[in-house]
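Researcher: Quick sanity check before group meeting.
Model: Go ahead. Protein one:
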Amino acid sequence: MAVPGYGSTVDRLVTALGRLPGIGAKSAERLAHHLLKCPDSEAVELAESILAAKQRIRLCAVCYHLTDAEQPLCDICRDPRRDPSILCVVEQSRDLITLEKSRAWVGLYHVLLGRLAPLSGIGPDSLTIDALASRVAAGQIREIVMATNPNLEGDGTALLIAERLGPLNVRITRLARGLASGSTLEFANRDMLADAFTGRQPL
C-alpha cells in the first residue's frame, strides 16, 4: 500500500495501518497523517496500549473469552451472579460483548474462537469444541444456546456442535431470527422474512 511521494518510514506506517480490518488505503493514509501530527504522548500511549494488550491479554481458562494474564478466569466466569446452568456459544469475544450490551443474558458463555470454514482450512480442530464438550460432560449445564452468526458457516458450526453434544443429553437451542422488535416489513430483507416465518410462534 506504498503511496508515491512518501518516504519509506511513512510508507511502512501506512502499510501497517492498512492491514487492520476495515481500513482501506485512504483511511490508512488519514490515520498515518493523524499520528504524525498528534502530540508524541498520544502516539506513545497508542503504541504502549497495543503492546500491553499483546503482552497481557490471554484467553479465559474456561470460556476462552479475553482476560488479563493475572486473571486465569474472565470477569464473566468469576461473576457469582451468573447462572452456570445455561451456556451461550458464540464465535468470537466481540460477539459476546455485543450480547452483553443487550443485558438480556444471565448465563455463562463459551467462545469458539471462530467458525467452520473448510475453504479457509478452519475445521473442528481449530475451534474450542472439545473444551465445550468437556464443560457439558461435567453435568452442570442444562441448556446450550447457539449464538453463532446466521449465515452458512455459522449454521454449519451450530449443526456440528449439536451433533457432537447430542449424546450428552443437554437441551440445545438457537437464537431466534427474523423481524426485530419495533421494525417494519418495509425494511425487512428476504432472509429476515424467511426466518420470521420459520420461527413463528403461537399468538
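Researcher: Fine. The other one?
Model: Protein two, sequence then structure:
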Amino acid sequence: MADKRAIGVFDSGLGGLTVVKELCQVLPKEDIVYFGDTGRVPYGTKSIDTIKKYAAEDERFLLSKDVKLIIAACGTVSSVASSIAEDLPVPYFEVVSHAARAAAEITKNKKIAVLGTAATVKTGKHAEYIKRLLPDADVKAYACTLFVPLVEEGWYSAEDAVVLETVRRYLQPVISFGADTVILGCTHYPVLTEAIAKVLGEGVTLINAGTATSCAVLRYLEENSLLNETETEGEHRFYVSDKPDSFRSIASVLLGEEIDENKIEQVDLNSL
C-alpha cells in the first residue's frame, strides 16, 4: 500500500540539506519536510542533555507535519541522542550506523578515520558500529570543530585559501594515520568534500552519510510498500527556527537548485 505522507528530516542547521540532496536523487517522488534548527546551531558543542532536549523538540515538530518516518540528519544527534527516538510512532533513521557500514565494506587497509563534531567524536559510536562488522579495523576519530561554522558562513570552496588551510590543519593527523577511508561524520561536512579530497589526495575514499542513509530509507520503503507512487516530483518544504534569509541563499547552493521563498517558513518550537 502506497504512503503519500512526507519524509521528515531534521538537523541543527544547513548540513542536513546534504541528506535531502541525496534523498532527492534516490527518492525523487517523495515529499520531504525539512527542519533546520538554525537558531540553536551548532549542536556539536552542547551538552548531551541539551542535544537530547533539542532533538526531541525537532522530532515533535516533524510529527506535527504527519511525516511517515524521521531522519536525524545530524551526526551529533545520531551519536548521542538516538535513544530518545525509541518511543516515536514512526520509523527513525540516523546517519551513523549507515555510514559505518559503508566504510567497513569499502576499506582495504582497515584504517578508517571519522571526522566529526566534538560530541560525535567523544561517543565513539562510529567505531562501535564499524568493529561489529570488522572487528580488526583500526578506527580513529577527529574533531573538526571549525568545519560547521565554515559551512554555515558559506565558506566551502576548495579554492578559498582560508578553507583549504583550515581543512589541511585538521587533516594532518588523518594523513599521518594512513586511513584509506574517511567518514564525513557530520552532515555539514560533505559541503567541504572538494577541499577535503584535495588535501587527502587520491586513494582515500570519502563516505557521505547522506548517500548511505538515503539508500537504507529506499530499501525500507520498498520492503514495507510505503513508497509514494505518484508520477510527479516530490514537494519539498523547509522550516527554520531563525530568520530564513541567509538559509535560502546557502541552501540553494547545497541543494543545487533555487528554493522558492514561499517554501521556507520560520517556526517557534515553543508554540507547539
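Researcher: One line on it for the slide.
Model: The mean pLDDT is 92.
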